[in-house]
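User: I'm preparing a small set of examples for a lab meeting where we compare how different chains pack in three dimensions. I only have the primary sequence for this one, and I'd like the structure in token form so I can line it up with the others. Please keep the answer compact; I'll paste it straight into my notes.
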Amino acid sequence: GGLLAGQVVLLASVLRDIHRARAQPNLELAVHGAIAQRIPEPAVARLLQANARMWLYAFVRDPARFRFPGDAFHGHQHDGNASIQQAFLVLVAMEIPVAHVLLHLFAGPWVAALVTTLSLYGWLFLYADYRATLLRPTTLAPAGIHVRSGVLGDVQVPYARIVRVDAARAAPTPGVLAVI
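Assistant: Understood. Below is the structure token output for the 180-residue chain.
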């Protein structure tokens, strides 16, 4: 119940921030800024920003609302990443009604309702992660590389910390981070 109430409050605040930032070119950056202003603790702010990203990418339909500054490139086609996510979305969507019926028959209606609700939330997270994979690029900013991957991946790497970048076809040296 507490998790559900927390999600409703966060969703309402994200919707309010979206409404306030409707003129901004990037909703994600606008919501991140709003959360960072309200929450002084960086670890808590990052957790809430990741959760807000989930709701943004699950429900905001217009890809033009997610324009990121700087030169950008996408990695969703790397090793069929987006295609694999689509396959999991389909599998989970097919499993939910079957699991609901079986749980209803063998464990009772309350257990079935609870597990189905959590499964639907999990499916929504997978869907948002899939959309974020398609829409969140890695960008080259003045200070460094901003690597975005799905809903949760959000890392900024200063250029000074990059030792070497290898070509994608070359095998990276062990112990050296290769940016592809």
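A couple of notes for your slides: The mean pLDDT is 84. Strands lie at 71-73, 138-140, 144-149, 153-158.

User: Perfect, thanks.
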